[in-house]
Design goal:
The chain is an all-alpha fold and about 90 residues long. Helices cover about 70% and strands about 0% of the residues. It contains two helices and no strands. It has one domain. The model has no long low-confidence stretch (mean pLDDT about 90). Helix 1 runs antiparallel to helix 2.
Length: about 90
């Protein structure tokens, strides 16, 4: 009986890999743009933009959760199969 549930979980991981992988890949390009924007903001104002940093942290957290799921470390599925989570906070 355990083999059936492990196979089912493996099939879920393949689906999650495809769907979440595409979403995270597109999102990564957006994050790279935000990195440049935040870099320019810091260059001219001397202060980081908290909202941009927090948005980047959401991506970092989801990419981490994605890798943990794909490597069988956890059975908690990443976005869009669960809600978005952040693992860190903005540090001043």
């Amino acid at each position: 009986m355990a083999k059936v549930s492990e196979r089912k979980e493996l099939l879920w991981r393949i689906l999650v890999f495809i769907v979440s992988g595409i979403i995270l890949g597109v999102w990564r390009a957006f994050i790279q743009i935000l990195f440049v924007v935040n870099f320019v903001i810091v260059l001219f104002t001397g202060k980081r933009n908290k909202e941009i940093a927090n948005l980047c942290e959401i991506w970092n957290s989801e990419a981490y959760r994605f890798m943990r799921y794909l490597t069988f470390e956890t059975n908690e599925r990443p976005f869009p199969f669960t809600n978005l989570k952040t693992l860190g906070k903005f540090e001043k």
